[in-house]
Structure formats: C-alpha cells, structure tokens
Amino acid sequence: MVLTSGASKEFGSNVHVVISGLTNTYSQYVTTFEEYEVQRYEGASTLYGPHTLSAYIQEFRKLGAALINGRPVEPGPQPPDLLDKQISLLTPVVFDSTPSGAKFGKVKSDVALNSTFKRGDMVTVTFWSACPRNDLLTEGTYALVEILQGQKTWVPAYDDDDFCLRFIWSRPSKLSPQSYATIEWRIPRSAVSGVYRIRHFGAAKALLGSISHFTGSSSAFVVA
Predict the structure, then answer these.
(1) Is residue 88 one of the residues assigned to a domain?
(2) Last residue of a domain, one of 77, 95, 119
(3) Which of 24, 70, 32, 78 is closest to 51 using CA atoms?
(4) Across 52-79, average pLDDT
(5) Could you tell me the residue range of the domain that residue 214 belongs to?
(6) Domain boundary among 77, 98, 115
(7) Do 111 and 72 fall into the same domain?
(8) What is the secondary structure of the chain as a DSSP string?
(9) Does residue 89 sit within a domain?
(10) Is pTM, for the whole model, over 0.90?
(11) Per-residue pLDDT tens over the stretch 114-151
C-alpha cells in the first residue's frame, strides 16, 4: 500500500508482492500477535515478543516511504557480535594423517576393474580422507559422480546435493588422526548409459595448522 499510495505515484499498480518465508536466520519466525499467544512451535520461535510483526510492518512502511520519496534512511542498530563470548564443546581438529604409503584422496577400496553396473545398483568407493570440518566446501562438493564424454573429458553428473549420492566420513578409532570417506552412489533409473567414475574432494590439516586441499578418483566403470 505504501508503494502504490505515494505522492509520486511512481509505481502505480505495477507492484508485485513476493512473500519469502525465510527461517532459522537472525530473526527466526515472525508470527501474528494471536499466533504468538498460542505459543505453538512458530509462536515460541518468534524471539522478539508478541509485537514482532507490528514492528516489522512499521519499519517496512518507513523503508517503502523513503523508497518512493527518494529519502535516505539512517542505519539502525546492529545486532550484537557475540562470537567472542561463545564456547564450543566440539573437539577441534588437531591434524590429519594417512597410513604409510597412502596420500590423501587415495582410494582405499575401489570398484572392480572393468566392472559394469545396472540402474538401481549401489556403487561404493572408499578414499583415505581428512576431517570435513577443515573446509565445509560450501561452494563445492565432497563427492562427485562424473561421466566420460568423448575420449578424455569427464563431466559432472551427480554431486552430494543429489539424494542418490551419499558421503560418509569416519575414523578407524576415535583418537586416530586417520580417517576415510565412503561414497555410495545408488544409480538412478534415469541415469544414461556410459562410463563413469567417482571423485572425492577434501582438505587436510597439517600438524602445524596449515590446510591443503586434495582430490581422488575411483577407477572407471560402466553403467549399462
């Protein structure tokens, strides 16, 4: 209403309202006064009290009016930075290592040579790895299935966003600096026939604290 009723009439009726229901962020849930009073899940997760929605409406009206009138908006108070007050009970990564003769990313348990799988089969490969907390790879992936195009070009087909691909990390013992990653690929019914391989990406921490990235690849196999 603020955008369509401004004095300039700049927007007119050409306004599209998009409701973006984001949760689990700084604000958490924003419910109506009545829903807050009931105190079910959403109301109990509205962190700033029963009038949170009214406060949002008030501030968005100010922003809308400033937008259509071309007025600057003073920055409001910033949320407190409490990072230096937080504690973690999660044991930090001291360092990662591999058995003698094995490098990070080396295959520990591979597919059989010249193997062929059908759709619906499970392909399992295990790599010598490192703790995933060294790098969360938020712009990448820990696991990847690639398909061969032509004679030399490997193209990504599935990654750990896909339900058919699972990344499982574990240690041989709790206090061991060694670890391995098992990647399981349940071949989808929609997978095209071809030559595939499984790749693993990770990051290892040295004893002095430096982080180095690595990758590993399984042997090629056929999906028929």
Answers:
(1) no
(2) 77
(3) 32
(4) 88
(5) 107-223
(6) 77
(7) no
(8) -TTTSSTT--STT----------SSTTB----HHHHHHT-HHHHTBTT-TTHHHHHHHHHHHHHHHHHHT------PPPP--GGG----SPPP---B--TT--TT-EEEPPPTT-EE-TT-EEEEEEEE--GGG---TTS-SEEEEEEETTTEEEEEEETTSTTEEEEEE-SSTT-SBEEEEEEEE--TTPPSEEEEEEEEEEEE-TTS-EEEEEEEPPPEEE-
(9) no
(10) no
(11) 999 999 999 999 999 999 999 999 989 999 999 999 99
Domain membership of residue 87 (yes or no) is no
Structural tokens at position 76? 């409001």
Q: What is the pLDDT of residue 12?
A: 64
Amino acid identity for residue 26 in this structure: Y
Give yes or no: residues 128 and 199 share one domain. Answer: yes
Q: Are residues 215 and 122 part of one domain?
A: yes
Specify the range with the lowest mean pLDDT, choosing from 25-34, 88-97, 111-120. Answer: 25-34
Q: Is 196 annotated as a binding residue?
A: no
